[in-house]
Every structure is written in C-alpha cells, then in structure tokens.
Model the fold of this input.
Amino acid sequence: MDIDVTKKGQTALLTVNGNVDEQGAELLKQTFYKLNMKELTNVVIDFKNVNHIGSAGIGKLLLFYKDFAISGGGITLENVSRSLFDLFKVVKLDTLMKINAL
Done:
C-alpha cells in the first residue's frame, strides 16, 4: 500500500493505493501525523483504489478523526466502494465524517 499526499490551500488530499491491512494502517497513521493539522481545515481521503480495510485501519481513521476534530477539522472519504461504504455505515463512521460512495 502507498499513499500520495497533495495539499491545496487548507485541504490535504490523501490518495490511498492498495488495501489497508495492519501495515497499511500504520502507514496511514504516520501519514496523518506528518500533516500540519494547524494549517488544515479539511482532509480528503480517496479510497478509489482500496478494496479492503481491516479493523486496524478503521481504528486509525477514528484516532485521526478524534485528534483532527479537536482543532475543528473535517474529514471526507471519497470514492468509497459499496462494500466499504456498507462497512463504514455499520461501524457508524458516517456519523463522524462525510463518506461519498462510488
């Protein structure tokens, strides 16, 4: 798995390529905390090339949400497959962040 990061103004776009297993979750966490959250108001995470996310990946999303929301930031998950969208709804991630399915 790899993550490409681009910034435009106060928004960071993270494009995730590959499945988010335990190692991928750790990479996701490292990428989150390399961002300067004080300069950002939005983080968009593109899941177009992700078919699977494990519990560790969901945990890292929740951890980042908690830390980023404290500073008033918002998170959007883009291009989420139908199966991941359904999973995110089951764990109620859609109540914390905006999720746009494919």
User: Anything to note?
Assistant: The two ends are 20 Å apart (CA to CA). The chain is about 35% helix and 30% strand.
